[in-house]
């Protein structure tokens, strides 16, 4: 592939909008339709909603691309939470109207904008979704695609951009009554295929630049990939002509000026069409030698130094986010949206870093006496301390170089810190859960480099049998470490369930969510334990027994019904969405079927259901966890191609650790 062809990628500008004051009107509505106490319970959400929109309009150009992304995601979540209020506003002829005005992203003069219908939110949601796709396209275009890490981040960014435009095409654009051309169904379809094509092209480039592969292996890997990229660009070339036909050439579109997008996409199509034909001819006459077959599945131990950070970042993409929405709303110090005392909802500002205060009072000081017998089978596993930083850093110095070790030093420091943190006594249940989850994600990043055969002192993980502490297992095998962490996550989530106050509806829902969380981590534990060959508590027979006990415990627990009257802030509908998590695929179907289960007289219930909808949609669209490493609130950040610890969070996390060494149950 020539340099000229590979260097050029397309991105799109953000849509512009006029300022709108949201807080005063919406708070007035909640106070009048519900009550003043209800208005106080959701006031934080309304304030954060208003701040997000103001920052989006007034500060957008001054923010980095990842910060603009964080602001847009936060605003979209708040917008989904308040959506039921707009339904009420639209039916109130006496209410002051809220009108959203948006301009075409490709009109440089920002003329001929469109207004939403009176108090209608559909245009606002569609425009924000468009801007999320646009900002991801800009992140992808801004990546240094001359490096393996830059190509990977660009590829994943374009995939997420394509996902956002897919949602816009299939769902949100259809509900916009009056829209600029960029929000039409045809345009959203075009942008979805455009960024899918660019992601596929970068995936192909990544294979072609795989320096650990021989020429023959590259031919085997990449030959079949030219044809799908060609098909993508064929579709994109057709769709851009459809878009221009719909526009009737009345619009002075930026992509139809000078070096046009039409010309660019036509050149891409011709290039990949020729390459696909060439690859098809080579493949017919080419047979991969048997000696190279093993290389197809070779480990990363053969990679060169340039690929190290890319492989580490790729490692975090392999694990889905299995956490429960409702559990994180109540207990996680790293979730900016919270349910706190008396059912009050808190939406912390998008630019406020964690940790965030939680409502630990929902947990009792002792476990439920009716179900606590399961704890004898699930004590927390103990481990010997380990200087993980020194052993891992030595490996990267010897295997690659001192400069490579410096590039990944931030991740190694975080791994060491989180492991020590996880072993501390006296931590609260919520904080220990957060700590274990963060450590497990970091382990997934480092896993591809095991076994560390090049190191004279690879890390030795020592874990004791949870049931018989006098027995231990000592291995270099990272799967022992991962399986032991997962065992403790299962045990910890089960403990949280047992410490919930089951005499309350909210306690019952939190308990069931914690058990669902335990079941999710257990599914990973069964997979990892087969590779660990550790102590008996990680054996297949023992883990199967644990799984059966958790399943029976879920059946015994009191179940709150969706038609019960909800206490403020703990709706049955939100609980149902929390159970769905990411297990279902059809998000739109879930939105429709769950909507009728909410209590229209409970504003906090309506808000939490809106949050759960937005959370599930964003998890489906933004499932590529590696892009979170670009965020300003990520514990480990990608900065200038290096993995660095986020210094902004260090002092805050230290304060939170000290706070967690308190009275909460262990």
From TrEMBL:
Family annotation (Pfam families): BRO1 (PF03097)
Domain BRO1: 8-636
Entries under InterPro entries matching the protein: BRO1_dom, BRO1_sf, RHPN1_2
BP-aspect Gene Ontology terms: negative regulation of stress fiber assembly
PANTHER family with a match to the protein in the record: LD12055P, RHOPHILIN
Protein name: BRO1 domain-containing protein
């Amino acid at each position: 592939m020539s340099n000229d062809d590979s260097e050029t990628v397309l991105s799109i500008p953000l849509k512009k909008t006029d300022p709108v004051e949201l807080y005063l009107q919406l708070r007035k509505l909640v106070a009048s339709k519900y009550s003043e106490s209800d208005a106080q319970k959701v006031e934080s959400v309304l304030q954060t909603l208003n701040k997000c929109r103001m920052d989006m309009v007034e500060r957008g150009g001054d923010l980095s691309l990842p910060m603009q992304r964080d602001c847009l995601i936060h605003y979209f979540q708040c917008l989904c939470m308040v959506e039921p209020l707009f339904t009420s506003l639209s039916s109130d002829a006496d209410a002051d109207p809220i009108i959203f005005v948006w301009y075409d992203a490709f009109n440089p003069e920002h003329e001929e904008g469109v207004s939403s219908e009176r108090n209608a939110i559909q245009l606002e949601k569609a425009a924000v979704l468009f801007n999320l796709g646009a900002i991801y396209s800009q992140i992808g275009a801004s990546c240094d695609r001359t490096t393996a890490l830059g190509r990977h981040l660009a590829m994943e960014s374009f995939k997420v951009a394509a996902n956002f435009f897919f949602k816009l095409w299939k769902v949100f654009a259809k509900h916009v009554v009056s829209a600029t051309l960029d929000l039409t169904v045809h345009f959203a379809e075009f942008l979805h295929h455009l960024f899918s094509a660019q992601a596929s092209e970068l995936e192909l480039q990544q294979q072609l630049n795989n320096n650990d592969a021989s020429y023959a292996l590259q031919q085997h890997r990449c030959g079949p990939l030219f044809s799908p990229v060609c098909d993508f660009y064929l579709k994109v070339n057709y769709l851009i002509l459809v878009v221009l036909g719909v526009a009737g050439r009345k619009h002075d579109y930026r992509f139809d000026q000078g070096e046009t997008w039409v010309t660019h996409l036509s050149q891409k199509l011709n290039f990949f069409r020729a390459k696909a034909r060439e690859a098809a001819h080579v493949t017919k006459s080419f047979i991969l030698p048997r000696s190279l077959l093993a290389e197809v599945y070779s480990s990363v131990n053969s990679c060169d130094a340039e690929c190290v950070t890319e492989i580490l970042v790729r490692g975090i993409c392999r694990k889905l986010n299995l956490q429960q929405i409702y559990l994180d709303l109540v207990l996680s110090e790293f979730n900016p949206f919270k349910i706190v005392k008396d059912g009050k909802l808190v939406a912390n500002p998008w630019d406020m870093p964690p940790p965030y205060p939680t409502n630990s009072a929902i947990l009792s000081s002792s476990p439920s006496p009716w179900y606590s017998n399961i704890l004898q089978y699930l004590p927390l596993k103990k481990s010997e301390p380990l200087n993980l930083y020194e052993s891992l850093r030595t490996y990267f110095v010897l295997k690659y170089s001192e400069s490579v070790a410096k590039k990944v030093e931030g991740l190694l420091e975080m791994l060491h810190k989180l492991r020590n943190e996880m072993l501390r006594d006296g931590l609260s249940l919520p904080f220990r859960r957060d700590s274990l989850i963060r450590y497990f994600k970091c382990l997934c990043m480092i896993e591809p480099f095991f076994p560390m055969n090049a190191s004279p002192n690879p890390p030795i993980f020592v874990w004791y049998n949870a049931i018989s502490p006098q027995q231990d297992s000592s291995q270099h095998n990272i799967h022992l470490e991962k399986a032991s962490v997962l065992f403790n996550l299962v045990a910890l989530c089960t403990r949280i369930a047992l410490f919930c106050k089951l005499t309350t509806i909210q306690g019952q829902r939190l308990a069931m969510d914690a058990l669902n969380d335990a079941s999710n981590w257990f599914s990973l534990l069964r997979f990892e334990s087969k590779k660990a060959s550790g102590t008996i508590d990680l054996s297949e027979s023992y883990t199967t027994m644990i799984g059966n006990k958790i399943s029976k415990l879920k059946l015994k627990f009191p179940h709150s019904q969706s038609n019960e009257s909800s206490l403020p802030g703990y709706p049955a509908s939100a609980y149902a969405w929390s159970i769905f998590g990411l297990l279902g695929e059809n998000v739109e179907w879930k939105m429709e079927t769950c909507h009728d289960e909410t209590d229209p007289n409970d504003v906090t219930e309506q808000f939490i259901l809106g949050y759960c909808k937005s959370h599930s949609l964003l998890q489906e669209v933004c499932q590529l966890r590696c892009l979170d490493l670009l965020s300003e609130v990520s514990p480990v950040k990608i900065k200038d191609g290096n993995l660095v610890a986020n210094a902004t969070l260090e002092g805050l996390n230290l304060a939170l650790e000290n706070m967690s060494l308190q009275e909460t149950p262990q």
